[in-house]
């Protein structure tokens, strides 16, 4: 007789679920936009789970950065690379360097990003082009190259940083919303192609996280209050709130998770 609702036996499907499924020891993770904010928290979380880290940012220090300090404190190796994601040639050169490392990239976290705020009627072509290049086009350029190598090996984990504005329209951020909506679609499109080849492609959609990108909203008392009133958790998110989702999607625990855009938003989308 089956006992409905009871936990599986020790030799059932859940028997192997535990710390080992989240262990990233021996893996190499590339994290773009790793110098601060969400990228810094993601790199730190992956290192704590056992991964060695290649950090990428336009202004990342060669030595002595906060991300290097955190990764080293976790006992993992760290390598710094500078690349401006507004510059296609710089991203092409980065991809070449990453593909010629002495070990393969197991995890790619596409977190580099920028934002520009203005009413749509005042949004310049230069603002639009730069945001789309950083937040979408060069994300694809790098992922295409790293993904090709992952496909050859038959395994890999790719994470994009999406946004609540992958689902909603936002205010005065037309290019950012367009890019992040496209990132959600790109996540699904790549997953459809690459899941059968052993490469998991997923995205995390952060809610309102207290970072430099949201400083203008935090500094506006009325806007900040309206945001807090909408969040069931009743607080702004912290970069470290992304740690668990990052490790999950980078680890064996998510081997059957494909094409997901996972909100980490304090309940915003459920309101």
Could you give a short description of this structure?
With 271 residues, the chain is α/β, with parallel strands linked by helices. 38% of the residues lie in helices and 14% in strands.
Assign the CATH architecture.
Answer: 3-Layer(aba) Sandwich
**Mean pLDDT over all positions:** 92
SSE order: EHEHEHEHEHEHHHE
Total strands = 7
| Name of the CATH homologous superfamily | NAD(P)-binding Rossmann-like Domain
Q: Find the structural class using helix and strand composition.
A: alpha/beta
Distance between the termini: 41 Å
Per the principal axes of the C-alpha atoms, what is the gross shape? globular
Overall tally of structural domains: 1
CATH topology title: Rossmann fold
Give the helix tally: 8
How helix-rich are the residues, as a percent range? 25-40%
Radius of gyration: 19 Å
Question: How much β-strand is present in the residues?
Answer: 5-15%
Q: CATH class, anyone?
A: Alpha Beta
Largest sheet: 7 strands, parallel
Strand order of the largest sheet: 3-2-1-4-5-6-7
Extract low-pLDDT stretches.
1-17
């Amino acid at each position: 007789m089956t006992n409905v609702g009871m936990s599986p036996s020790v030799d059932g499907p859940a028997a192997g679920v535990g710390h080992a499924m989240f262990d990233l020891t021996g893996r190499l993770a590339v994290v773009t936009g790793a110098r601060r904010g969400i990228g810094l928290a993601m790199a730190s979380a992956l290192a704590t789970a056992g991964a060695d880290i290649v950090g990428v940012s336009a202004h990342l220090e060669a030595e002595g950065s906060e991300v290097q300090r955190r990764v080293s404190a976790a006992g993992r190796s760290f390598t710094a690379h500078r690349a401006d994601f507004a510059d296609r040639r710089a991203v092409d050169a980065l991809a070449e360097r990453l593909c010629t490392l002495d070990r393969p990239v197991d995890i790619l976290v596409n977190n580099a990003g920028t934002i520009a705020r203005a009413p749509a009627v005042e949004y310049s072509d230069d603002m639009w082009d730069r945001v789309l290049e950083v937040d979408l086009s060069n994300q694809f350029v790098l992922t295409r190259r790293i993904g090709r190598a992952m496909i050859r090996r038959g395994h890999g984990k790719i994470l994009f940083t999406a946004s609540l504005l992958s689902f909603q329209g936002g205010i005065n951020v037309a290019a950012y919303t367009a890019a992040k909506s496209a990132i959600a679609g790109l996540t699904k499109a790549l997953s459809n192609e690459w899941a059968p080849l052993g490469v998991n492609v997923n995205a995390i959609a952060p809610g309102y996280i207290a970072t430099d990108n949201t400083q203008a909203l935090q500094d506006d008392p009325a806007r900040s209050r309206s945001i807090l009133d909408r969040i069931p958790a009743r607080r702004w998110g912290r970069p470290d709130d992304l740690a668990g989702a990052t490790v999950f999607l980078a680890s064996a625990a998510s081997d059957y998770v494909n094409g997901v855009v996972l909100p980490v938003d304090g309940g915003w989308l459920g309101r």
